[in-house]
Amino acid sequence: MRSFFLLLMFVINGYSQKIYFISQSGDDLNLGTSVKSPWKTLKDFQQGNTYLFHANDTFYLNIPKIKIEDSLPTTISSYGKGTKPLICGYRIISPNMIFPTNFQNVWQVAINSNLLEGLKSVQNENVGFLMIKGKIYGNKCKELNLLKKEGDFYDEKGMLYIYALVKPSNKIYFACRGNIITLSNNLTVSDLRVEGGGSHGVQGENVRNVRLKNLDLKNIGGAYLKGFGDGFIRYGNGIEFWESATNCYVEYCSIKDVYDAAFTAQGRSPSKVFYNIVFRNNNISYCEQAIEFWQEHCLDGFKKCSFSNNKSMYAGYGWSHEVRPDTSAGVHVLVYFPLLGKSDVKINNNSFTNGRTASLRLPVDFNKNNCLSLKNNSYYGNNNKFIYYNNGEIKSIIDFKSTISKQ
């Protein structure tokens, strides 16, 4: 019935859009255009169509950016009753793939082996984290001889090395560098679970007209950001808009256990702008930050951008905090952008509970030129470390409320 109404809507709007169904029990030789003949994978992805994944199923795949983009809307969602379908980036190691090394308590796995389960990729490298029996191990070492405690790991040239007192007897899930979903223009993504990526869960670069709704993301990030800094900087956000974006809405999503920020709009271009980026009615927990706005060079980098009616808990209390080189940004709100121009960011009507470093980390002059609004937010726990400025100064809640009362 849902697919009928979707098709009717697209015909009324002046064009006919194909609807494709994808199921674990499907076959890529099927037409994919009915629930009785679904595809098994996302075998073809073009703008202007709807792609529905079957509820309760797990799909080990990446959703790529559409190669040829036009103005037609594209939809990715789910069908059927039950748990939201899982779009998953894990590679999976079986115990019979694990062998000893010449180093005490260090085990090795060939991670480009065709014996791996999970996501099939020709290149498995730059591991972000391991997951064993539901527990994340995030201590990624720079050298093999630095492996010292349970779950420490190092990967190089197709080999993964793991420290364990006894040979692991359970399957090991690991995430490699790469986004799980890469956004395209005029794209709606809804009603999915997304898990197990070494880079970002969802990322779009210079995108427009994007809607992300009712997504559940967890266990994201930790890979090295190659070509940046010394080559050992780790990264990974839940949902990221990069360089610029226009008319993008993120709502009713749940984000948990992300290496960096649950949500972010960030870039380095001196001329590109984020316009009308809206994050609202979301739940965030155990991420290093809930929201990050960062624009390195553009003075007017944010226009009509907002983070409102969200609930964030335990910023900086996730798996990534203890394995970070810098633990000074376990906060709900992280803002890096010049306040000399005419940017417009509103962070209002949110609930923030327990920030490990502080509740907020802001520029010292965050109140300058009314570029940043922080109104009607509720703060719970850790109020003795309420606001942490980028120069290292910590302010109390009394000082902070006195400052924002002047907005």
Q: What's the structural blueprint in terms of helices and strands?
A:
Blueprint: H1 2-12, E1 19-22, E2 50-54, E3 58-60, E4 74-79, E5 86-88, E6 91-93, E7 99-100, E8 106-110, E9 117-118, E10 127-132, E11 135-137, E12 153-156, E13 159-163, E14 172-176, E15 181-182, E16 187-190, E17 193-197, E18 202-213, E19 216-220, E20 223-224, E21 234-235, E22 239-251, E23 254-258, E24 261-267, E25 274-280, E26 283-285, E27 289-295, E28 302-303, E29 305-308, E30 311-315, E31 333-336, E32 345-348, E33 351-355, E34 360-362, E35 372-373, E36 378-380, E37 387-389, E38 394-395, H2 397-404
Parallel strand pairs: 1-2, 2-4, 3-5, 4-16, 5-17, 15-18, 16-18, 17-19, 18-22, 19-23, 22-24, 22-25, 23-26, 24-27, 25-28, 25-29, 26-30, 27-31, 29-32, 30-33, 31-34, 32-35, 33-36, 34-37
Antiparallel strand pairs: 6-9, 6-14, 7-8, 8-13, 10-11, 10-14, 12-13, 20-21, 37-38
The SS-based structural class is mainly beta
Oligomer: single chain
Q: How many strands?
A: 38
Number of helices: 2
Short description:
With 407 residues, the protein is mostly beta strands.
Q: Describe it for me?
A:
The chain is mainly beta and 407 residues long. The chain has 2 helices and 38 strands. The strands form 5 sheets. The protein has an 18-stranded mixed β-sheet that branches. Strands 3-5-17-19-23-26-30-33-36 form a 9-stranded parallel β-sheet, with no helix packed on it. A 5-stranded antiparallel β-sheet has the order 9-6-14-10-11, with no helix packed on it. Strand 7 (99-100) and strand 8 form a beta hairpin. The longest helix has 11 residues, at 2-12. The model is unreliable at 1-12 (pLDDT under 50).
